[in-house]
């Protein structure tokens, strides 16, 4: 019986470590130029590719009030489906916008 309990406990630790690594791998940051803006998002052109950024958590439906085409930004967030969900957005003049969850 001890053997089974040890295996279950060990397996639980492995799963926890694996989930933590996966969550950290999904969170990332991209810098680039805004190509297009709409009410709850924008398209970001980086050196390597273009990303569709969902900025609803940061601006709600007011993205175009805060960002414009041509703005240089750095976006922190994670991929969810085909979009990159923004947690924070920093403009080139160091103005930072972020979700309530990222304020410390």
Automatic annotation (TrEMBL):
- Species of provenance: Mastigocoleus testarum BC008
User: Per its UniProt entry, which superkingdom is the organism in?
Assistant: Bacteria
Report the protein name in the record: DUF5666 domain-containing protein
Query: Which keywords, in A-to-Z order, does the entry hold?
Result: Signal
Renumbered to this chain, the signal peptide range is 1-23
